[in-house]
C-alpha cells in the first residue's frame, strides 16, 4: 500500500488532472461549438503548446535555459516545407519523422557545443548560446535564396495520408491527438525514475555529480528530446499554416516561448499549454480592441505576472513544491525531493 509523506500532495494530485481534463474537453469541443477561425486558433495553440512543452521540459525540469528553442521549431518547419515543395512528398507519415529528425539533429549539435564538456556550463552560457544560435539561423534563412530568403517557403500543401489530404477539422484532430500523445509521454517521463534524476539535477546538481551521475549526458538527452518535440511542433505548424518563414527560427518566437511557460507556470507541464492559450487569446482580443497599443498592454500583463507571480498562473492553485516536476516533494537541508514510501 502506498501512502504519501507530505501534506498538500493530495490537493496537487487532484488539481493537476482536473486542469488536464478541462484542457482536453475544451480542445475536443472547439470544432463543434466554435467557428472555423476558432478552430484554426485552437490548432495553432496546440502546436505552440508543443514548443512551450519542449522549453518547460528543458528549463522547468532540468534547469537548461534554452533561450533559442525556436531554432529547433524552425528547423522542423523548414525540413517539412522543403520536402513538401521541393521533394513533392506531403505524406504525414514522412513529414512528421523528418520534422522530429531535424529537431534532433540541430539540438544534438547545440548540446555538443553547449552542454557536453569537462566543466558544467553555466545557465547564462547556455541561454546566450542558444539565443545566438536562434538569431544566426534566422539571419541565415532570411538571406539564403535557395530556401526563399526573407519570403520563406510559401504554398506548402496540406499533409496527406494514403493519398487523401488532411485539412480542416481532420487536420485539427490530428494535431490534437499528437499533442495528447506527446504530453502523455513527457508526463510519464518526468514522473519516472529518470524524471527523479532530472529533478535532482535541477535542485542539487553538485550532489548528483558526487554520486557519480554523468550530468552533461543527462542534460544532453533531455535537451535533444526537447529539440525533437520542438521540431515536431515546427513541422505541424508548417502543415497547418501552409508556409515556412525565417521568423519560425528567430529570437521573437524564442522569447515568446519563454513568456508562455513563465506565464503559465514553470515546472508544470499543463501550465505551458494554459500559458500559450491565455497569451494567444489575450493577444487576439487586445489587438482587436486596441490595434495600436495591444503589444504594450500584453507586454505589461506578462511583465506583471513574471514580477508578482514568479510561479506563474498555475501557482495560484498548485504550489511549486507540489508540481509534477517536484513529485510532490520538498527539500530538507538541501536534500533531494522526498519520494513516496512503500508499506
Describe the 3D structure:
With 343 residues, the chain is an all-alpha fold. It has one domain (2-342): Orthogonal Bundle (ABC transporter involved in vitamin B12 uptake, BtuC). Helix content is 66%, strand content 2%. The chain is built from 11 helices and 4 strands; from the N terminus they run E-H-H-H-H-H-E-E-H-H-H-H-H-H-E. It has a two-stranded antiparallel ribbon. A hairpin with a 2-residue loop joins strand 2 (160-161) and strand 3 (164-165). The longest helix is centred in the middle third of the chain and has 27 residues, at 215-241. Residues 1-12 and 324-343 have low confidence and may be disordered.
The total strand number stands at 4
Strand order of the largest sheet: 1-4
Number of helices: 11
CATH A-level architecture? Orthogonal Bundle
Q: What is the CATH topology descriptor?
A: ABC transporter involved in vitamin B12 uptake, BtuC
How many distinct folded domains?
Answer: 1
The percent range for strand residues is under 5%
* End-to-end distance: 6 Å
Taking all Cα atoms into account, the compactness measure Rg is: 20 Å
Shape: globular
What's the story with the biggest beta sheet? 2 strands, antiparallel
Amino acid at each position: 500500500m502506498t501512502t504519501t509523506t507530505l501534506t498538500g500532495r493530495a490537493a496537487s494530485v487532484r488539481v493537476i488532472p482536473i486542469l488536464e481534463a478541462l484542457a482536453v474537453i475544451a480542445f475536443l469541443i472547439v470544432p463543434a461549438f466554435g467557428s472555423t477561425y476558432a478552430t484554426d486558433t485552437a490548432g495553432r495553440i496546440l502546436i505552440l503548446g508543443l514548443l512551450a512543452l519542449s522549453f518547460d521540459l528543458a528549463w522547468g525540469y532540468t534547469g537548461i535555459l534554452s533561450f533559442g528553442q525556436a531554432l529547433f521549431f524552425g528547423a522542423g518547419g523548414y525540413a517539412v516545407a522543403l520536402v513538401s515543395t521541393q521533394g513533392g512528398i506531403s505524406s504525414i507519415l514522412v513529414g512528421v519523422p523528418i520534422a522530429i529528425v531535424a529537431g534532433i539533429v540541430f539540438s544534438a549539435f547545440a548540446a555538443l557545443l553547449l552542454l557536453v564538456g569537462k566543466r558544467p556550463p553555466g545557465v547564462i552560457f547556455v541561454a546566450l548560446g542558444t539565443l545566438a544560435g536562434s538569431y544566426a539561423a534566422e539571419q541565415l534563412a532570411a538571406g539564403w535564396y535557395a530556401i526563399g530568403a526573407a519570403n520563406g517557403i510559401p504554398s506548402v500543401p496540406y499533409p496527406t495520408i494514403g493519398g487523401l489530404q488532411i485539412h480542416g477539422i481532420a487536420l485539427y484532430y490530428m494535431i490534437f491527438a499528437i499533442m495528447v500523445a506527446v504530453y502523455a509521454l513527457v508526463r510519464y517521463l518526468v514522473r519516472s525514475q529518470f524524471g527523479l534524476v532530472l529533478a535532482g539535477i535541477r535542485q542539487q546538481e553538485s550532489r548528483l555529480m558526487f554520486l557519480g551521475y554523468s550530468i552533461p549526458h543527462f542534460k544532453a538527452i533531455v535537451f535533444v528530446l526537447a529539440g525533437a518535440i520542438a521540431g515536431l511542433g515546427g513541422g505541424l505548424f508548417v502543415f497547418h499554416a501552409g508556409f515556412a518563414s525565417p521568423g519560425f527560427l528567430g529570437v521573437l518566437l524564442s522569447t515568446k516561448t519563454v513568456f508562455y511557460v513563465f506565464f503559465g507556470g514553470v515546472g508544470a507541464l499543463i501550465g505551458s499549454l494554459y500559458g500559450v492559450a491565455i497569451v494567444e487569446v489575450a493577444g487576439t482580443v487586445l489587438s482587436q480592441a486596441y490595434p495600436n497599443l495591444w503589444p504594450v498592454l500584453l507586454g505589461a500583463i506578462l511583465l506583471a505576472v513574471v514580477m508578482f507571480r514568479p510561479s506563474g498562473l498555475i501557482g495560484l492553485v498548485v504550489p511549486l513544491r507540489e508540481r509534477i516536476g517536484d513529485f510532490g516533494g520538498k527539500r530538507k537541508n538541501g536534500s533531494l525531493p522526498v519520494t513516496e514510501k512503500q508499506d
